[in-house]
Amino acid sequence: MEIPAELRRIPPKTTLDWVARQFGAGAAVTGVRRLRNAWAAAVHAVDVDDGAGARHELVLRRWARTDLPPDPGVVENEAAVLTLLHDVERVCTPRLVVADPEGAAADAPAVVMTRLRGTDDLAPLDLDRYLDALVAALREIHGTVVAPGALPAYRPWNVDGPIERPPWSTRPDVWERAVEIARAPIPAHRPALCHRDFHPANVLWHHGELSGVVDWSHACTGPVAVDVAHCRVNLSLLFGRDVADDFAHRYGPVEHLAWFDLVDVVGFDTIDAWRWQDAGRLDITSESIGAAFDDFLAAAVEQLS
Is residue 171 helix, strand or coil? Predict the structure, then answer.
């Protein structure tokens, strides 16, 4: 599959004018470029001159895919999380500028935020330093205090309805057992702030240092194992299961990690190799992702059986 057309198109003028208006009547957009490695939403860097000598570097996220409507509440949730984390200095996140949950002003549901320095790095030269930085960032997220009820509680993806073995899986025995395990109740836990989609593609680096964490649209409160497992799954397909295991070892003891490993893989209903290729990892294919998922799932099932 190629990059969906809605992700490649430059936002329409009416939407860009809406972004500019956030900075006054005399503001104007002076630059727009697509940011790579977007999947569910179109993501563009937008520069605005406010007419008073200031330049604003922004990110515009638009849930514009006609074949993939946004999950209910994702725009509101991202806005809520960015507002909540506004004054939390130890977690470097964008600042919210404006949100349009219904797409009333933009051409699609959208959120505008400040642009952090840096870019993703999916082929690090120093993997030890890379993993340590990921662990440190994730610990800071999990250590952030969130008021009860401020964010939705964690729920696994795609396990409530019928679950069919996806085309990428070549292990029907493993898949059937995994589905049985995934149907079990969420293990008891102490809720913490969870990014919910924490993995290398949502982490930015600048001059070799981790400079920010982005894509907070599914953040929630839940067990820390949610984030550790999701990052492990992605590390496994990018660098191999040994690296994923090393990441977990560096993070430290996590209760019920194998269960969340399993549930995370079961929650993937599609494989989109084009996203990784768009980010420069041309070696990642649908076949390699499927093989990594099967291997990861089999290991989790073995631990839980």
Answer: coil
Q: Report the b/e string of 4-19 with b at 16+ CB within 10 A.
A: bebbeeebeeebbebb
pLDDT higher than 90, residue 64: yes
Altogether, the residues listed in the chain come to a count of 305
Residue with tokens 């679950």: 163
Q: Is the pLDDT of residue 269 over 80?
A: no
- Render pLDDT for 128-147 as a digit per residue (tens, 0 to 9): 999 999 999 999 999 999 99
Least Cα distance to 118 among 200, 231, 21, 53 occurs for 200
Q: Are residues 261 and 215 in the same domain?
A: yes
Which of 61, 86, 114 is the C-terminal boundary of a domain? 114
Mean pLDDT of 73-86: 95
Q: What angle do CA 259, 264, 268 make, to 5 degrees?
A: 145
**What backbone torsions phi and psi does residue 196 show, to the nearest 5 degrees?**
85, -20
**Confidence (pTM):** 0.95
Phi, psi of 30 (to 5 degrees): -115, -10
Cα end-to-end distance, the chain, whole Å = 36
Question: Which range marks the domain in which residue 85 is found?
Answer: 5-114
Environment class of 124 (CB within 10 Å of its CB; exposed 0-12, middle 13-18, buried 19+):
middle
